[in-house]
Amino acid sequence: MKKNYVLLLTMLLLSITMYSQDIDFKKGKVLADKKSVFDFDKRKMGSELSLFKLDTKTELIYIEINNNNTISYLDDDFVKIVFPKNEVTIESTLLIDKNFKEIIQLLFMNNVVDYNGTINQENLFLFKQRQNNRKI
């Protein structure tokens, strides 16, 4: 029984790592599986991230992790993702436990963005339906 449990756990971990992209931030570039996809800029002590089309200043995605200036009160925290060219804004409490790398991985896994830095409008709409849950 213990052997089956270890085998199941190993299979689960392998399947998780096979489908996730390796995201790195190096010298102003976002690398997905060691390929440059976006330029980036972090602001406000690391709570805001802008992703730009490669070698331009055209902002494609803006991500903000917002704690509403209440460090010890977590119920009002949310992540805001803005796609300025697509005029789409997502505000989600579901993503608050994720860092920038994990959010970008999620965008790749849901085929919202591809390795060319292109945004898929249909998948963006589906992603917004799943993640946009913040009520004002």
TrEMBL record:
It comes from Flavobacterium profundi. Residues 1-20 form the signal peptide. The keyword Signal applies. The keyword Signal applies. Keywords: Signal. This is DUF4968 domain-containing protein.
